[in-house]
């Protein structure tokens, strides 16, 4: 089966760079499945897991916290605000971040900027935890 290069890059480092047969991302309009020779595309991404399907049936799952995906004929580049592989996520820190964000949400009013920040913090923490527990949706 045909493959293409997938790179996930943050401002700090290259998080991922492997050949894949398919990538599943969550864009602002919903989920996208990218396969080799896909039409060129650039779109923003939501805070959600990225699933990379590799030859041999193995999947790599990366917690991506926003950014953009650029699709070319033979390459996909994800420019993420932050991204972590499951094995790099500190579960205790992610759980603590989830608790802090939930507490901030309960204290903030829905029309305040603090509410939106807490909401985003909670989404990021849940994304990281879902990747570590392999509870992503394909």
What would your notes on this structure say?
- It is a single chain.
- Strands 1, 2, 3, 4, 5, 6, 7 and 8 form an 8-stranded mixed sheet that branches.
- Helices cover 27% and strands 43% of the residues.
- The longest helix is centred in the C-terminal third of the chain and has 20 residues, at 113-132.
- A hairpin with a 5-residue loop joins strand 5 and strand 6.
- The chain is of the alpha+beta class.
- Keywords: ATP synthesis, Cell membrane, CF(1), Coiled coil, Hydrogen ion transport, Ion transport, Membrane, Transport.
- Belongs to the ATPase epsilon chain family.
- This is ATP synthase epsilon chain.
- It is found in: Cell membrane.
CATH-defined topology of the largest domain: ATP Synthase, domain 1
* Helix/strand order, N-terminal first: EEEEEEEEHH
The termini sit apart by 20 Å
Q: How many H/I helical runs? A: 2
- Global geometry: elongated
Main attributes?
138 residues; alpha+beta; ATP Synthase, domain 1; Single alpha-helices involved in coiled-coils or other helix-helix interfaces; 2 domains; eight-stranded mixed beta sheet; elongated; cell membrane; ATP synthesis; ion transport; coiled coil
Give a short summary of the structure:
Helix content is 27%, strand content 43%. It has 138 residues and is α+β, with helices and mostly antiparallel strands. Strands 1, 2, 3, 4, 5, 6, 7 and 8 form an eight-stranded mixed beta sheet that branches.
């Amino acid at each position: 089966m045909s493959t293409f290069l997938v790179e996930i890059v943050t401002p700090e480092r290259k998080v991922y760079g492997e050949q894949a047969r398919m990538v599943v991302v969550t864009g602002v309009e919903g989920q996208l499945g990218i396969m080799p020779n896909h039409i060129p595309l650039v779109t923003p991404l939501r805070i959600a897991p990225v699933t990379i399907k590799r030859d041999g049936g193995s999947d790599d799952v990366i917690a991506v916290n926003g950014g953009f995906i650029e699709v070319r004929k033979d390459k996909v580049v994800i420019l993420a605000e932050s991204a972590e592989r499951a094995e790099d996520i500190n579960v205790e820190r992610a759980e603590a971040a989830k608790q802090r964000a939930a507490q901030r949400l309960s204290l903030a009013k829905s029309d305040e900027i603090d509410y939106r920040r807490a909401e985003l913090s909670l989404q990021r923490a849940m994304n990281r935890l879902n990747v570590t527990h392999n509870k992503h949706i394909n």
